[in-house]
Amino acid sequence: MPSVFISGSAVGWYGDRGDERLDELSVSGNDFLSDLCQQWEAATLTAEKAGIRTVHLRSGIVLSATGGVLKRQLPLFKLCLGGRFGNGHQWLSWISIDDEVGAIVHLLSADMCGAVNLTAPNPVTNSEFTSTLAKVLHRPAVIPIPAFGPKMLFGSELVEALLLGGQRVLPTALQRSGYEFHHETLDVALRALLHRQ
């Protein structure tokens, strides 16, 4: 029998909560993504009942220049077409790929179970993310992306949940466990990740 079971979930567990600071003790949300994450975590109950140390990774947006959302945004920003979504006030809880992997390795041997937020300690708003990425790339980012465009392409519910909603999630349990971040701030993370290209 394995000694540890690590299950990947997401910060969507908390739902769209505006400016509220969220940690592992915060209650769950009540929208589609929150419900999905709750069901995903509940599916590990068999492992927990078998006495296996079970950890629920609640990951934020994982930043990597070679995949995911950052890779998809880079071409637009390099062409000076990047911009904030909607009003830009929605929170984005992010983590660099280095810290995502580092935290998982750390949790394999750390004496902890239950929910662990895998996010950097300094979440940003969508506007802050946009301006920081533009600054690192030495490009302007002045064209906001209105909400109706993505809603027409992807549907209102999906866009509201993924692009126009957000969570201000803090990695309280991870930091208390002694994990030391490689990239605590977005500027440092983006410069490190984009330097590798």
Structural overview:
This protein has 197 residues and is an alpha/beta fold. The model has no long low-confidence stretch (mean pLDDT 90). The chain has one domain (4-195): NAD(P)-binding Rossmann-like Domain (Rossmann fold), CATH 3.40.50.720. Helix 5 (126-137) crosses helix 9 and helix 6 crosses helix 7. Helices cover 42% and strands 17% of the residues. It is globular and about 55 Å long. It contains nine helices and nine strands.
Structure keywords:
9 strands, alpha/beta, three-stranded parallel β-sheet, 9 helices, Rossmann fold, 197 residues
Gyration radius from CA atoms, angstroms = 17 Å
**Share of residues in strands:** 15-25%
Structural class: alpha/beta
**Tally of strands:** 9
Strand order of the largest sheet: 1-3-7
CATH topology: Rossmann fold
Domain module count? 1
Shape: globular
- The total of helices stands at 9
Poorly predicted parts: none
Largest sheet: 3 strands, parallel
Order of helices and strands: EEHHEEHEEHEEHHHEHH
CATH-level-2 architecture: 3-Layer(aba) Sandwich
CATH C-level name = Alpha Beta
The level of helicity is 40-55%
Distance from first to last alpha carbon? 41 Å
In brief:
This protein is α/β, with parallel strands linked by helices. The chain has helices at 32-42, 45-49, 68-78, 97-109, 126-137, 148-154, 156-164, 172-176, 186-195; strands at 4-10, 21-22, 53-59, 61-63, 91-92, 94-96, 114-118, 124-125, 168-169.
Protein topology:
Elements (H helix, E strand, L loop, with lengths): L3 E7 L10 E2 L9 H11 L2 H5 L3 E7 L1 E3 L4 H11 L12 E2 L1 E3 H13 L4 E5 L5 E2 H12 L10 H7 L1 H9 L3 E2 L2 H5 L9 H10 L2
Parallel strand pairs: 1-3, 2-9, 3-7, 4-6
Antiparallel strand pairs: 5-8
Helix pairs in contact: 5-9, 6-7
